[in-house]
Amino acid sequence: MTIEFSVSTHGAGLYEITRSVQNWLANEQTKDGLLTVFVRHTSASLLIQENADPDVQTDLHAFFRKLVPHANHPKMTYLKHRYEGPDDMPAHIKAAMMPVSLAIPVLNGQMVLGQWQGIYLFEHRDAPHQRNIALNLTS
Amino acid sequence: MTIEFSVSTHGAGLYEITRSVQNWLANEQTKDGLLTVFVRHTSASLLIQENADPDVQTDLHAFFRKLVPHANHPKMTYLKHRYEGPDDMPAHIKAAMMPVSLAIPVLNGQMVLGQWQGIYLFEHRDAPHQRNIALNLTS
Amino acid sequence: MTIEFSVSTHGAGLYEITRSVQNWLANEQTKDGLLTVFVRHTSASLLIQENADPDVQTDLHAFFRKLVPHANHPKMTYLKHRYEGPDDMPAHIKAAMMPVSLAIPVLNGQMVLGQWQGIYLFEHRDAPHQRNIALNLTS
């Protein structure tokens, strides 16, 4: 069973999608299986991260922004792919370093997420985007 | 089929879990399928890495310790999430850069691991922890 | 259903394998399921990346080459695992930062790849290699 949904983003950073995934799973009435989340873009990622303190999301964004600076930064002069602005190629690089898909076992009808684990879309582009995410449940 | 087991860690570094996964798989008597390993924490990762020379594990730990220094390092003053000490937020960052789940095809009853591939839990926290890992087998 | 195929590489960089995966999937005649790609090595990765502008591949290679320099670089003197030359341990590090497996939902007989998403083997070693890749389809 595969479906698709979309998330509107307004700038780089993390957007929690746990509830959307849970709601779909609840309707499927599958007790045991494997849930896969897949993002259909090369400039956004999926993460499972702490959902308690919002500072974790701020810090994650800040770290990767420093590790992979925008293309107009002096350290990034070697980048060739610049069609869509200084956040273009760095977005692809971040998309290579973080997951495009997540595989989450389902037990007793629920994802086996730990107590502090939430599912996030990590938007790497600065401008607003509509991001398509596919969900698959295999049992 | 989904089960869970736990690993006791005593400091940051890699802990091999290949044997535990193989033993469970052997009991399942599934010839062909997909095995998923999932760690239920946001400050530890799963890796498939070389299992021949232990220096590989030492070097991996050293590299990520330098790439993501503890929060008391001068380069990391911008970090806000510091509740649980200087290794707290760097652990979340490393957990974003390395897998939370691994999907491994099963053929003739065995994972298709290459000759030098072992499965590891990568603990990112300094203090001892009990880490819960879920295994799913879908055929 | 699990099969294996191999890719010949001639130096570090990205090698597109989308067509090989699509061709195999087309033969399977499965409408809905989950396709898993798994690389059976610890010095190569799998990526889903933009397949429009080849500069993206050049830039990805350049970024990771700088982030994880060869072992003969002054910044990498701490590395211990050096059996197979200066590109040996950096290849393992890159293999830890990028996926060893990709999970891609299949809908109406096709992978749900986005418009610009291609599947790549990312070779991290400098010398030519034969790389084995396993494909699993679960429905």
Which descriptors apply to this entry?
homotrimer; 139 residues; alpha+beta; Jelly Rolls; 5-stranded antiparallel sheet; 3-stranded antiparallel sheet; 3 helices; 24% helix; 39% strand
Can you walk me through this structure?
- Three copies of one chain form a homotrimer.
- Chain A is an alpha+beta fold and 139 residues long.
- The first copy, chain A, has one domain (2-138): Jelly Rolls.
- Chain A is 24% helix and 39% strand.
- Chain A contains three helices and eight strands.
- In chain A, the strands form two sheets. Chain A has a five-stranded antiparallel β-sheet, covered by helices on one side. A three-stranded antiparallel β-sheet of chain A has the order 2-7-4, with helices on both faces.
- In chain A, a hairpin with a 2-residue loop joins strand 5 (101-107) and strand 6.
- Chains in contact: A-B, A-C, B-C.
- Chain A binds chain C through residues 1-2, 4, 34, 36, 38, 40-42, 67-68, 78-81, 83, 89, 92-93, 95-97, 99-103, 132, 134-136, 138, and chain C through 32-34, 47-50, 53, 55-56, 58-60, 62-64, 66-67, 97-99, 102-107, 112-114, 116-117, 138-139.
Mean pLDDT of chain A: 97
CATH superfamily of chain A: YjbQ-like
| SSE order of chain A, one letter for each helix or strand | EEHEEHHEEEE
Strand content of chain A: 35-45%
Q: What fold name stands as the CATH topology of chain A?
A: Jelly Rolls
Going across the biggest sheet of chain A, name each strand in turn.
1-8-3-5-6
What oligomeric assembly is this protein in? homotrimer
Q: What is the number of helices of chain A? A: 3
Q: Count the strands of chain A?
A: 8
Distance between the termini of chain A: 9 Å
Biggest beta sheet summary of chain A: 5 strands, antiparallel
CATH class membership of chain A: Mainly Beta
Shape of chain A: elongated
**How many domains, in number, for the residues of chain A?**
1
Radius of gyration of chain A, taken over Cα atoms and rounded to an integer in Å: 16 Å
Give the chain pair forming the largest contact, with residue counts: A-B, 34 and 32 residues
Helix-residue proportion of chain A? 10-25%
Stretches with pLDDT under 50, minimum 5 residues of chain A: none
Structural class of chain A comes to alpha+beta
Q: If classified by CATH, what would the architecture of chain A be?
A: Sandwich
